[in-house]
Specification:
- The protein contains two helices and eight strands; from the N terminus they run ααββββββββ.
- It is α+β, with helices and mostly antiparallel strands and 110 residues long.
- Strands 6-5-2-1-8 form a five-stranded antiparallel sheet, with no helix packed on it.
- The longest helix is centred in the first third of the chain and has 14 residues, at 2-15.
Amino acid sequence: AYIMAHQWYRFREEKGDMLMPQETPWDYIFSKGECFFVKIYLKNGNVICGKYAGKSFTSAYPQAAQIFIEQQYLLEEDEKEEKISLIDNSAGIWISENEISWIDFRVCDS
């Protein structure tokens, strides 16, 4: 993997091409291995919040985009602030790309 990444870096430096080796932005963001708090805005207007970390999973191209978030949080919003709290006994939630409008990512510590 190191050799391939190094060769890609050299190619990009020589050619000035900023294309990524991942097929989609979806593949890129989730291939980074980072922990995120996500707010997933659904097409029906609902919002799902959760923690995407080591036990979470996403599909990769060419498969349809799917996401499993290991912990789901309840979002409470008012005019001044947002509050989130872990849903008791949350074992995660799976969401299909057909339901997702867009995702807000916030980096978490772990």
